[in-house]
Structures are given as structure tokens and as C-alpha cells.
């Protein structure tokens, strides 16, 4: 696992909420909410609600988003 996203990867049951994890992932990717929602094809309002913890983010979806971000990062920085 690459160090860049390693800190964003949390195990289920960690103290950090999923909403905070999404925000942390988005910020590490250097994106605002609009860019993040467009990148993943998720409505802007949904991302906003996840971060505000007004809507529940399924664990599997969070894992998929992290996986895609990690793969994209590795491909971009491939030597």
C-alpha cells in the first residue's frame, strides 16, 4: 500500500467516521467536492451529505473509492 493513501485507509470499527474518511480522501486527492463527485459519478449533494454525516455511506463503497484512488495514484506515479 502506498504511503500517500495509507493514512486514509482505515479498518472498520476505527474511531474515524466514514464521512470524515471521505473528506480526508477527497482532500488528499486535492479535489473540491464538485471535482470529487464528478470523478466518482456521485451527485454533489450526496458527497456533501456524507461529509456532514447526514447520509450513511456504505462501507463497501468507501473501500471501492479508496481502491480506485490508490490505483490511479500508483499509475500516475509509476516509474
From TrEMBL:
GO molecular-function term, one example from the UniProt record: DNA binding
SUPFAM superfamilies, A to Z: lambda repressor-like DNA-binding domains (SSF47413)
Cross-referenced InterPro entries: Cro/C1-type_HTH, Lambda_DNA-bd_dom_sf
Chain ranges of the HTH cro/C1-type domain: 22-67
Protein name: HTH cro/C1-type domain-containing protein
Taxonomic classification: Bacteria, Bacillati, Bacillota, Clostridia, Lachnospirales
Amino acid at each position: 500500500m502506498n504511503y500517500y493513501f495509507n493514512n486514509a485507509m482505515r479498518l472498520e470499527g476505527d474511531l474515524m467516521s466514514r464521512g470524515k474518511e471521505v473528506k480526508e480522501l477527497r482532500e488528499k486527492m486535492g479535489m473540491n467536492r464538485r471535482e470529487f463527485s464528478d470523478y466518482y459519478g456521485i451527485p454533489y449533494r450526496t458527497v456533501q451529505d456524507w461529509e456532514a454525516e447526514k447520509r450513511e455511506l456504505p462501507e463497501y463503497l468507501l473501500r471501492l473509492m479508496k481502491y480506485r484512488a490508490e490505483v490511479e495514484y500508483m499509475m500516475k506515479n509509476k516509474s
